[in-house]
Amino acid sequence: MTRPFTSTLPTSGFLALGNGGFRPLRQVQGTSIVSLGLQRRPASSLRGMVKPLRLENVAGVGATTTQVYYSRGVLVAQEFLNEGAWFELEERTRAYNDARTQALARLRAAAREVGALAVVDVHIRRGKLAQARRAIEFTALGTAIASDRFEPGENEPIPLVGIGGVDFWKLVDSGTWPLGLVGGTSVVYVVSGYRTKFARFRPARRSLRNQEYEDYTEGLRNARLRATGRLRHEATQLGATGVIGIAVGRERREQRDDNLMVTVDLLGTAVAPLDRGEPRQLTYALGLGNT
Fold first, then answer.
1. How many CA atoms lie within 13 A of 67 on its CB side?
2. Residue 202 has what pLDDT?
3. Assigned domain for 2 exists
4. Residues 46-67, mean pLDDT to the nearest whole number
5. What is the pLDDT of residues 132-168, one digit of tens each?
6. Dihedral of CA 202/206/207/209: which sign?
7. Nearest to residue 190, comparing CAs of 79, 70, 42, 90?
8. What is the pLDDT of residues 61-86, one digit of tens each?
9. How far is 8 from 164, CA to CA, in rounded Å?
10. What is the DSSP secondary structure assignment for residue 204, as one 8-state letter?
11. Contact 136, 96 (CB under 8 A)
12. How distant, in Å, are the alpha carbons of 23, 70, 245 from that of 26?
């Protein structure tokens, strides 16, 4: 008796794969739960480190004057105080990237066990674990597929695809082969400047005007740039010519003293051209990442 397959595919994706010569095998999953280690965050004492020193000078009996001593690099200090600064939290960033890498590796291993050619329609769940306050979860679930016409190379990596069956068939039919999922995460801590503090202080007249929180904007921009850089690095390692279907995840958490912690998470499918000659060349296409 033949066991029925299980799949995350909708009806349209299932039919498109069948028309393209592919068949679903079963659902496969990869999960990683990582405990967050100690992460030192930029403290408010940073402001005291860059503030100009105030020295009291006794001019005479009953008379005291205050002098302000501006140390070297005063322009940088004043810019920090007014406009704020951002710092990437390296330990937390590494935890997110490690969790994603481990979960996808387990998903790929599960697909290889069932003899899959690829895994399509991969859905991602990422975030905090409810049962553990200092842990993050990364779970990937997709449908392993096979083909009667094509076979993967024995030692070739199985591509994980973040698109559905219809788009997968369109890619292969147009001469493009998905190489796998690539991603990048960056966690940035923004120390708010005085401009933002005054703007957020509601009793102040300045808070009544439209204005940009420039330090928050700069922190979010740099988190995105760093996450994009990691995604491109992974795509380059696979030998990809592009990344499609990039999904952007963002999380913003308020901290003390109007500070902000921003997490930007990117995930997409790396692709490369496929020679549409004889079917045997599909095995060669699976090795594009090693060229």
1. 8
2. 59
3. no
4. 48
5. 667 888 899 999 998 877 776 666 778 899 888 899 8
6. positive
7. 42
8. 454 444 444 444 444 455 555 567 78
9. 9
10. S
11. yes
12. 10, 68, 23
pLDDT band at 97 (very low <50, low <70, confident <90, very high): very high
**Helical segments of the chain, H only:** 11-19, 45-50, 74-83, 90-113, 165-173, 194-200, 214-238, 281-285
- Residue 5, token pair as written in the block: 């397959």
| Own/partner long-range contacts of 15-19 (Cβ < 8 Å, ≥24 apart) | 15/165, 16/165, 16/166, 16/168, 16/169, 16/170, 17/120, 17/145, 17/165, 17/168, 17/169, 19/169
Q: What is the CATH number of the domain that holds 102?
A: 3.30.110.70
**Is 253 inside any structural domain?**
yes
Can you read off the two tokens belonging to residue 254?
């308020």
Give the per-residue pLDDT at 8.
82
* Residue 245 and residue 178 in contact, taking contact as beta carbons nearer than 8 Å: no
Q: What is the mean pLDDT of the chain?
A: 76
| Residue scoring higher pLDDT (8 or 31) | 31
- C-alpha 290/C-alpha 238 separation (Å) is 7
Decide if 176 is inside a domain.
Answer: yes
Within the chain, what is the greatest distance between any pair of CA atoms?
A: 104
Distance (Å, rounded) from C-alpha 88 to C-alpha 152? 40
Contact by Cβ (8 Å): 122, 140: yes
The tally of domains found in the chain comes to 1
- In a domain? residue 278: yes
Amino acid identity at 99 = A
Residue-number span of the structural domain to which 230 is assigned: 11-37+88-290
pLDDT of residue 291: 39
Q: What are phi and psi of 232, to 5 degrees?
A: -65, -35
Please report which confidence band the pLDDT of residue 43 belongs to, taking 50, 70 and 90 as the band edges: low
Lowest mean pLDDT among 18-22, 129-133, 235-239, 278-282: 278-282
